[in-house]
Amino acid sequence: MSWLLQLYETYQANESQIGKTIKKPNDKEYTLLPISHTTQNAHVELTVDEEGDFLSAHILEKENTIIPCTNDSASRSGAKIAPYPLHDKLSYVAGDFVDYGGVVKNENDLPFDAYITNLREWAESNFAVDKVKSIYKYLSKGTLIEDLVKHELLVLDKDGLLIEKWNKKYEELFAEKPKIFSSGATDQFSVFVRFNVYSPTSSQVVWKDKQVYNSFIAFYNEKISEEDIDYVTGNLSPSTARHANKIRHAADKAKLISANDSTGFTFRGRFDTSRQAASISYDVSQKAHNALKWLIQRQGKTIDNRVFLVWGNDNNQVPDPNEDAWDLMLGSNESLDRPADTDKPFAEKVKKAIAGFGSDLTYQSEVNFLILDSATVGRLGILYYRNMDKKLYLKRLERWHEECAWSHHYRKKDGEPISFYGAPATRDIAYATYGPRANDKIVKGLMERMLPCIVDGKKIPRDIIKSAFHRSSNPVAVEGWDWEKNLTITCALIRKDLIDKKEVWNVALDHETKDRSYLFGRLLAIADVLERRALPKEEKRATNAVRYMNSFSKNPSRTWKTLQESLQPYQAKLGVKVTDLTRLIDEVADQFNLDEFNNKPLSEKYLLGFYSQRRELYKKKENKNESEETV
Fold it and tell me: Which residues pair with 45 in a beta bridge?
């Protein structure tokens, strides 16, 4: 239950944010909901005056609205009559619903009767506010549909009944398709209506009015009387067996906690009721679920309905373990201005950025990691949960960005490629492992598997490293830009794996190592650069070294003989311009132990040698060109 307690405490720490609507850069809005409230897409907004008389109405475009709710209404389905306390569908709020063709299951048990009875009880209670009383006065008249038809928001057929769904046969009655059929409602009978009250003394709309929130909370809490031990806080509090849905988004029906199956295998004969197994108070359930919804909308990452969420209980920003080093820097106050390919200075800035997230740590500061997904429509499961000290997390994140680090060039800023040094994002690792067309199901699975490697310091699974290695060793099957990206990400994974095995390898070229795979990788890089120098600048085709890369990794000595023969025309063409490269080939070849220059398949280290050697040769070329321009 620790995740529930952490969410509950998060809600308590952010009570000042309750009811505040925040707009994200993509124009989506999110709000920390009050308890006993939920959200619903409204299609029509109707305004009355303080005396309960109709003033105006207009059609909305699926606007998300905060509405009060009860336990019954929050989980209603099918033909079950369970009205929301204030805003609801036409079948509940319109007293003339049946008069205009609305179909109900039982004419002696109308949804409107249940709705207006509940609203009357609230409006006449000691907790009622004037706005609720005004809405009740209007709805008691039972003329809602009549008023909406008069003002041409709802439309009727020839028989004076509501048109359920738009059809071409109705085009002769209307010059154009009525707006109500473009509001997002499945049909006119399913239109959801929200209410507002015009008041010269208050400009706050009803669904954002904290007085209305508190009025219903106080009214409804008085009706919840059955107390039990709350397993989350240990207090004696009013309990509930019904818990919130709409956790990931407004249309989400899946629940994290559910005990509504009183038959079958639910209790296995051990208990008579679900409450005997575990009891959660209404207050804790509401606050924890509302905090979870708010956090997901504010900072969660959702891939194919799988939610990845990281949050801290000290209200300070927490770095996301799924981000790469560049995003980590963007989320900090560290300057990003730096010379290209300066690995050590950039690594130091990443360390400072991570340290900056821990500069304002409070006593017992903690961070939480949560992964949610649903196997069925109605059940939501916790695939991963971890609560840990924030200092420990920042240390492990620093270790991850230090050990799974390589020099990358695939990010872009203002359309131009940029270089950064550090760990890649887990989503990019998924594409490097399974290809750029990997579907979201595969991507979210890999991201879930990588999280313990970052947070708990686990080793990267071997199948991920092998898959990325084989894709990077087969460049002809990948677009050139994607292959360069795959190569650096794979090198980062290989480096991390080797460090876990107590071997230290860096981006900088190691001139001293005698490892055969690393040396073969260096030879391949020299062959690639030599041929590339001989080709015209506009020539974009892959070199023979790149084309034979897959074969080279499996049969290095035999393939190297083929490559040497293919290099002879380019060496003859360039003449003395490639003397340095020819000499370098001999120097690298001399470092082999004679019995290791064979056809045994290469290990992953050959990619490190290939990248580092090629990188050093290109840097030397750039430096030479710069010095020539200066002269």
Answer: 58, 194
Tokens 């929130």 sit at which residue?
213
Query: Could you report the per-residue pLDDT of 134-179, keeping only the tens digit for each?
Result: 999 999 999 999 999 999 999 998 888 998 888 878 877 887 888 9
Q: How far apart are CA 405 and CA 426, in angstroms?
A: 13
User: Do the beta carbons of residue 293 and residue 247 sit within 8 Å?
Assistant: yes
Q: In the chain, helix, strand, coil percent, each to 5? A: 45, 15, 40
Spatial separation of the C-alpha atoms in residues 210 and 204, rounded to whole Å: 9
Report the chain's terminal Cα–Cα distance, integer Å: 70
Q: Taking the CB of residue 459, how many other CB atoms lie within 10 A of it?
A: 12
d(CA 236, CA 280): 10
Closest CA to 323 of 346, 294, 301: 301
Residue 448 near residue 456 (C-beta atoms within 8 A): no
Is the model's pLDDT at 550 over the cut of 70? yes
Q: Contact 245/252 with Cβ under 8 angstroms?
A: yes
Q: How far apart are CA 524 and CA 441, in angstroms?
A: 36
d(CA 516, CA 524): 12
Listing DSSP states for 239-297 in one string gives EES------SSTT---BSS-----STTSSTTS-SSHHHH--EEHHHHHHHHHHHHHHHH
Q: How many residues does the chain have?
A: 631
- The burial of 204, by beta-carbon neighbours within 10 Å (0-12 exposed, 13-18 middle, 19 or more buried), is given as middle
**Nearest of 499, 310, 326 to residue 404 by alpha carbon:** 499
* pLDDT(362) > 70: no
Q: Are 406 and 494 in contact (CB under 8 A)?
A: no
CA distance 475 to 453: 27
pLDDT at res. 28: 79
Q: How far apart are CA 219 and CA 25, in angstroms?
A: 37
Read off the pLDDT of residues 367-424 as tens digits, 9 standing for 90 and up. 999 999 998 888 899 999 999 998 899 999 999 999 999 999 888 777 777 888 999 9
Amino acid letter, 48: V
How buried is 235 (Cβ within 10 angstroms: 0-12 exposed, 13-18 middle, 19+ buried)?
Answer: exposed
Per-position DSSP letters for 449-478, written without gaps between them: HHHHHHHS-PPPPHHHHHHHHHHHT-GGGS
Q: What CA–CA distance (Å, rounded) separates 40 from 59?
A: 15
Other beta carbons within 10 Å of 132: 27
Q: Give the tens place of pLDDT for each residue, 413-432.
A: 777 778 889 999 999 999 99
What is the overall mean pLDDT for the chain? 87
> CA 121 to CA 142: how far, in whole Å?
17
Mean pLDDT of 36-52: 93
Q: Which two tokens stand for residue 394?
A: 């920042």
Name the nearest CA neighbour of 521 among 480, 490, 487, 549: 549
Residue holding tokens 């650069």?
Answer: 529
Instruction: Give the Å distances, CA to CA, from 573 to 523, 524, 539, 542, 576.
Output: 20, 20, 16, 18, 9
Cβ-in-10-Å burial (0-12, 13-18, 19+) of 112 comes to buried
Find the helix or strand (DSSP H, E) in which 479 lies: none
